[in-house]
Amino acid sequence: MKNVLISFVFLVFAPFVTQAQTLSVDAAVAIALKNNYSILISRASADIDKANNTAGNAGMLPSVGVNGSDYYAISNVAQDQSNGAHINSANATSNTFNAGVALGWTLFDGGKMFVTRKKLNEIEALGNLQFKDQVMQTLFNVIVAYYNIVKQKQQLASYNEVINYNEERVKILQASFNAGLSAKTDLLQARIDLNVNLELAIGQETLIISVKRILNQMMGREADTPFEVADSIQLSYKPDQAELNKKLFINNPTILSSKKEVEIAGLGVKEMNALRLPEINLSAGYNFLNSNNSISSVTSNRSYGPQIGGTITIPIYEGGNINRQVRVAKLELKSTGYNLESTKLDINTQLQNALTEFENQQKMLVIEKENSALVKENLDICMHRLRLGQTTSLEVHQAQESYEESHTRLINFEYLTKVAETKLRQLMGAL
Questions:
Q1: Does residue 61 form part of some domain?
Q2: 140-176: per-residue pLDDT in tens?
Q3: Rounded CA gap, 70 and 398, in Å?
Q4: What are residue 143's DSSP bridge partners?
Q5: Quick one: which of 326, 232, 309 has its CA closest to 270?
Q6: What's the domain count of the chain?
Q7: Cα–Cα–Cα angle for 362, 367, 369, nearest 5°?
Q8: What is the CATH classification number for the domain harbouring 126?
Q9: How many CB atoms lie within 10 A of CB 167?
Q10: CA 430 to each of CA 211, 337, 390: distance values in angstroms, whole numbers, following the listed order
Q11: What is the C-alpha separation between 153 and 163, in angstroms, rounded?
């Protein structure tokens, strides 16, 4: 029966495991950094902020333009002039050509342009922090997904080990039943247990394929790109709680992003206050004009040369709009301040929860490692006694269940410890 099921599993799942190479967690991270679409989108957003950070966008540079026009007209003219003269002209023509270069430059706007430039610098910095935050979140997801595959792979190995015990149990009870030393019900129960574990192994194979597809998606690869993962979860991280608490507000990219938003909102208030001050603009240019009129007293007119001028605008009353804009900017500053404090509280809570989770999982892991050794020894003793006819099939069945449950708990404790470790590293921006 086992051989038939193994053949079935091989035929169904062989396309997904052929030519699979072992993928390390570092390699998975490197591929995700290059291909993950969330990272690529976040990088593009940061690049947009960088592209917008220019002196011209802040209003510090002049604008220069070239303009030109040419008007030509044919008309029938009938004029009575004040001196008594009468002019009648058919098909009178006129042509006016104008061209020039114009420069406009805001020399002073209450200092707003300098505040805006600084604000653009801060927005670019914020974009980089948000990009890093997205990278940390994506890498956390990738690492957790990778070790979930390792966990499921270990669970499959556990099922296969229990299957081996069940096969031996069936053989022993088959021989005992043939010799008339045990009841058929014991043999039937052993076969039922074997089939159940074979089914679990097939289901576990399906689950492994599913979680591999999830990791491939995170790495920006085709869903069924074949690969294998490590056989075990390495645990060597020893967090320093005092050091983590000390550096959390310095290193965490989410908190740093919130701080940057407060700084940007503060600059927004300065921008709006600058609207109360006068604005001085300079205009300069060079103009050329040529005009011809066949019936005018001046039939030809040409002028050209440079020109320069300036304007000053002093805001007196604008319907309360400046006061409204300043008030809104101050409310936005207050809102970002609240958001910063909320973010600090949330991230600190996440840190404390992750530390508690890490410590508790480590404690349970130590206990379960000892327990796993005990249940394995107990199962081996039960199997030996079954060979000697000194125990019942029920006792062996219970020992197998205890062994399988302990191994499952051990695998989960290792996995959850790694998840807590990865969360701590993410919070510190150190993945």
A1: no
A2: 999 999 999 999 999 999 999 999 999 999 999 999 8
A3: 101
A4: none
A5: 326
A6: 1
A7: 90
A8: 1.20.1600.10
A9: 16
A10: 25, 26, 57
A11: 15
- In whole angstroms, give the CA distance from residue 385 to residue 294: 127
CB neighbour list of residue 29: distance below 8 Å, 6 or more residues apart: 139, 142, 143, 431
Share of the chain above pLDDT 90, in %: 78
d(CA 179, CA 160): 29
Measured from the Cβ of residue 18, the count of other Cβ atoms closer than 10 Å reads 8
Residue 296 DSSP class:
S
Per-residue pLDDT tens over the stretch 287-309: 998 888 776 666 788 888 999 99
pLDDT the model gives residue 247 = 92
- 5 contacts 93 by C-beta, under 8 angstroms: no
Q: How many residues does this entry show for the chain?
A: 431
Taking only Cα atoms into account, the Rg of the chain, rounded to an integer number of angstroms, comes to 40
- Separation between Cα atoms, residue 42 and residue 50, nearest integer Å: 13
Q: What angle in degrees, to the nearest 10, is found between the helix axes of 112-178 and 184-218?
A: 160
SS (H, E, C) 374-412: HHHHHHHHHHHHHHCCCCCHHHHHHHHHHHHHHHHHHHH
258: left (phi over 0), alpha (psi -120 to 50) or beta: alpha
Distance CA 62, CA 280 (A): 13
Question: Residue 247 domain-assigned?
Answer: yes
**pLDDT(12) > 60:** no
Q: What is the DSSP letter of 189?
A: H
**Phi, psi dihedral angles at 58 (to 5 degrees):** -80, -5
Where in the sequence is the domain holding 266, given as residue range(s)? 2-35+109-277+315-427
Global pTM reads: 0.85
**Alpha-carbon gap, residue 292 to 304, rounded angstroms:** 15
CA 85-89-94 angle, to 5 degrees, is: 110
Q: For residue 336, give the nearest of 387, 260, 410, 394 by alpha carbon.
A: 260
- How many other C-beta atoms can be found within 10 angstroms of the C-beta atom of residue 316? 5
Residue 73 lies in a domain: no
**DSSP label of 275:** T
* pLDDT given at position 95: 86
Mean pLDDT over 359-365 rounds to 95
C-alpha closest to that of 216 among 149, 168, 167:
149
Does 254 map to a domain? Answer: yes
Residue with tokens 């927004």: 268
- Distance CA(217)–CA(223), nearest Å, equals 6
Query: How far is it, in rounded angstroms, from Cα 31 to Cα 26?
Result: 9
* Average pLDDT of the chain, as a whole number: 90
